[in-house]
Amino acid sequence: MDILSRMEREIELLPDWVVSVGVLAVFISAGLLIHRLAFGLLRRLVGPKDLFWRSFVARAERPARMVALVFGLYAGASVAPLTSSQAGALRHVLLVCCIILVAWIVHTAIHIWSVVYLRRFQLDAEDNLLARKHVTQFRIMRRIANSLLIVLAAAAVLMTFESVRQYGVSLLASAGAAGIVVGLALQPVLKNLLAGVQLAITQPIRIDDAILVEGEFGRVEEITSTYVVVKLWDWRRLVLPLNYFMEHPFQNWTRESAPLIGSMMVYLDYTMPVDVIRRKVEEIASRSVNFDGKVMNVAVTDLRENVMQIRVLASAADSGRAFDLRCELREQIIDFVQQKFPNALPRLRLEETPSATSPGRSGDWQERSG
Fold this sequence. Notes:
Elements: H1 2-13, H2 16-45, H3 51-77, H4 84-118, H5 129-159, H6 162-173, H7 177-185, H8 187-202, E1 210-213, E2 216-223, E3 227-232, E4 237-241, H9 244-247, E5 251-252, E6 260-268, H10 274-287, E7 291-303, E8 308-316, H11 319-340, E9 348-352, E10 365-369
Antiparallel strand pairs: 1-2, 1-5, 2-3, 3-4, 6-8, 7-8, 9-10
Helix pairs in contact: 2-3, 3-4, 4-5, 5-8, 10-11
């Protein structure tokens, strides 16, 4: 008892700030110790197959340590010999920190959940329609959720200040010109936000979709909460606002499925046997690695003054292979006609006709196209 009383007297003789620092240090140490024990237990409870919880425990350890530190300081502030103003200021700062840390933990949980969920889908697969659908939905919804989380956290922080809270209440209660001005100012932001929700639900475009927009062909590389990045065929990037795809027409070549039918036109003289071209096209397509064997057609689609128009259709597994297949057919058909039927190539013919005064001799040239 003498030792305890002596210690109490010695503590009373110490300055208040020294006692406060000591008390806060003890509570901080206790909070960190509880955090360490809790996460050590969580690591043992989480199984190796539970990827989400294992990743969440690993990623949330740092913000949870900060939360333990905040709660330790908050508990110590109620015990330490602080003045009412000092304790109030410390509790207010800790409350703001706690709101930010909780938002950080929720953001981490959203990120881990989306990553773990999307790992079952492979964008580089040959038939990646389902993967593109889910990846597009989750990326858009994750950005929207993170934006709403930031807004809610910022609002919660501001509402902890009495002056800002009163101003917000008075602003919400007023229905005058200020509300109209704010609404007009936020119209582009709200428009893109609603377009993002609509895009995630209806999905006119998805990640890695092959599209033709603004006269350019490319693939959807990124979809954010405000804009879409299209990687063009020559590696340029076309950046368009999100609401563009809700208000303007465009071509989506992989909306329902990746396979496409490629078409090409060949212009030859009337003397060219069409059956020979048909057999040659079938031979070229059968040897090509780009042809999927589903659609093959050769038909004369137009008869012009000088040539006939032959349309060749061939299907491929995706837009890239369809483009390569069309180029391959063009090259080999032209090479075949040049070698086997050179007279069937389109040309402008000039015939010599006898003159009226000198029959049978060179005279005027009469032009005939054929």
